[in-house]
Amino acid sequence: MDFIEPILSVASQIYNLVENVKANKKRCRRVCQRVRALEDLVRSIKKRKQGQNSADVEKALRQLSITLTSAQELIRKYTLAKWVERIVNSSSHGDEFNSVNERLNDAFQSLSGALQVEQGNMLNQVFELSSREKEDEVDQREDDTELKRLNKPRITDEVIRMIKADELKYHYPKEPFMTTSTSEVYRGEFHGFQVAIKRYTEPVSTSPRDVRSIFNKEVSTMKRFESPNILRMFGICFQDEDGPSPQFLIVMEYCEMGSLRQVLDKCKLSWTSRACMCLDAAKGLYRLHQTEEKSKVHGCINSSTFLVDKGYTVKLGGFELAKTETSLKKQAKDKGSTSLCYSSPEMLGSANYVYSKECEIYSFGIVLWEIATGQKPLKDWSSQDIYQKVCKEKFQEPLPDNCPEALRQVINACRDYDSFKRPSAGELVDKLRSTVAQLEAQ
Amino acid sequence: MEPVSLPAPTLIEESNLTDWKVIGSGGFGQIYSARHHKWCCSVAIKLLHYDDGTNGSLLREMDMMRIGGSPFVIQVLGVFKGRPASSGLSVQLGLVMELMERGSLACLQKTLCETPPWPLVFRLAHQVALGINFLHTLSPSVLHLDLKPSNVLLDSSLNAKLTDFGLARCYHSTTRLSKKVDREEGGTNSYMPPEAFKVTYSPTRASDIYSYGILLWSIVTGKQPYADAISSIVRFRIPLGDRPSLDEIQSQAAGIAGLRRLTNLMEKCWETKPNLRPTSHECTTETEELYKMHRHTINDAVFQVLKKLDKKEEEEGVTQQFQRVHISQASGSVLMLNLLN
Origin, by domain of life (chain A) (predicted)? Predict the structure, then answer.
């Protein structure tokens, strides 16, 4: 087992680094504690005889190794004085820890699954969901107090609910900043948050009562996706509900910079910011694909479903309240004009192919390619051309020569012709985090 | 374009209608149920959202539907003109139709989440064929052009009738439709024949037969065709020969009388070449024979499904499971406007 020694060595480096962190001490120590727990598990594997370990164990170890390297990079940041200043002003460093902790937990789940470790032992307690969440929250509060960060109201404190029309304040002049064939989007304010208010302009194909029941059902069953990389939904609002043409509004987080596509069209970006945007996007996707409970797929990943806020944080949108939104649109959604450039080779090969996470990772790889190049994928290609090239000739659009090697590898792996070889969203987060740390260090 | 000369439609005024309830919506208007107190029964009323001059399509649809007279095609009872209770001020036009208590086949599929009992499958297959055959044997033929589960409505005993003539037209061999018109009026991709994706497409009776083939697949499996594919892929793959998968059906076919023959019919209907598809008459004769094999157990099957539907309804506390008809927006002739204004 040649994975074990490197894992143990990275672990011990993490312990050393933690002694020297200058910020976020509590959370760095917590990561450290969890790594120690995993180390025990890894040592127990080491004691076993060769050949006793299944392919599952090896796979879990390989994953863990990537996760640890990425955790190490994260902690190293907080040992450097210049970072302390930067993070005081940033709003998303809390999430870095969340995703590292989630990855460590994933590693624990798959390792203990592969080893068939008994439930209810000491190790399990370290990774038990409710206590993890509590610990992490306390840690964050204490770390933030130390950094004297202002305790701003958090966007996720608001529950998704029915909103009354008078709770919404519109910006004047009351003109939409975006118009699509089915909707107009206005800027406004809701309980102190900057929001986008989407108003459906077409006569809808569902009665208000049905919309209400779909909404209530969806909110009650929906897993809350609390992440800075997922577009936050606040709720829906009815206007003129009993009238002849009732109107429906969806209230969501406002993203100043618009869609990822718009940002790529107008901004010149360094490789570091491009890699950061890739990492943000991957974190959004990982939150959705994550293994706990029932994992979900998005179903429509492209550069317009990601939005960008004023701090250039990328957020995945378009799936919270997806059922409610669909009920507000006319049934004939698209007229077949959507490009096939995000469709994986296996989707192009059959109309009966069952959509999977691997298909989604392919689409995501195309989005990453767009972030890296700024260009539009397979521009002006016909369906026939796309099918011939992508599905038959296994074509990948090239990346520029100056693209950092680590980033190139990640993007090409996502676009692999063989769906089996594409990475999971979790692996993507790990690899991109390391990539970003490397670029930032340069 | 006018198929037959029609008598003036019966005007139904708002004073005759009480208890308005929204039961669904279509592309250009909501659908209500209301009680006609002189007739002592409930009716369905399809209203326009706005009186903005798009009445043409509604009126054309009405023309198409008034040629009725088949138990397998929805009956239009008259024209509504007035201010419905909830609509405020404006005078609106609407179609008054018989009310189908059990909603659409699409609703049934959604509620059941599985194939209905086999006798009901074979009866649905046969009754839909009867509806299409009725339209195709009119002189001139009427093409439905938007056959799909949401356009098959079910009465209190789950008998099927075709509805939504928003896209229907009379068949004249000389009529050519440009692609643009086809796109705007569009049917539902998954049910559209391969020839419909070509630049020059003139719908024929065989277009409906293709959609019937796909509809048969949906009736048998209880599923939607190409559920995971985006519509661009569907548009692209259908002309290449992709059709819904028969694997699941074939694994059951040995145990169910007539299922193999029904599958063969399905495949013939969705042949790529229109001239290889059967006529509606051939379809109907075949489904009639197949339905005969299951007829003796149809009452049990219907009862079983109705019980299930009632239970679901109770659970969800939803008082209605009526039709949710989707009406595609279609611009058409303004035949009846003058008559009504």
Answer: Eukaryota
